[in-house]
Amino acid sequence: MKILIISLLVLFSHNLFSQTETDYFEIGNAKFKLGDHKGAVLSFTKAIEIDPTDSKAYYNRGLAKNILGDHRGAILDFTKAIEIYPTDSKAYLYRGLTKAKSGDHRAVFGFC
């Protein structure tokens, strides 16, 4: 009986305090808006760990990485967002802009 009660408490507390992918995504957005781009990257990463099919989390993490100067990481995130959601024109746009910013000038001429 004691083991059952402890097991139920652990299960209940885990469900009560665990955050969802949406929670981490929204936290990432809030951190981004406040200028905490490193914190945003961490929150979007947690969202992606929970739901690796969320193209918006990859896209937003790419934006934050781009601002932090991690152009390679941003390009990888924009590319993943495109793989998941191929009609995301913003992901193509920012991938191309980031490639150009990082010195890949082929992107400027349409090889995004």
Descriptors for this entry?
about 110 residues, 6 helices
Q: Count of helical segments? A: 6
Query: Approximately how much helix is present in the residues?
Result: over 70%
DSSP strand tally: 0
- How do the helices and strands follow one another from N- to C-terminus? HHHHHH
Pairing-aware structural class of the strands and helices? mainly alpha
Radius of gyration from the alpha-carbon trace, in angstroms: 18 Å
Which residues form runs of ≥5 with pLDDT under 50?
7-14
Shape: globular
Give a quick rundown of the structure.
With 112 residues, the protein is mostly helical.
Structure description:
The chain is mainly alpha-helical and 112 residues long. It contains six helices and no strands. The protein has helices at 2-17, 21-33, 37-50, 55-68, 71-84, 89-101. It is globular, with a radius of gyration of 18 Å. The model is unreliable at 7-14 (pLDDT under 50).
Topology:
Elements: H1 2-17, H2 21-33, H3 37-50, H4 55-68, H5 71-84, H6 89-101
Helix pairs in contact: 2-3, 2-4, 3-4, 4-5, 5-6
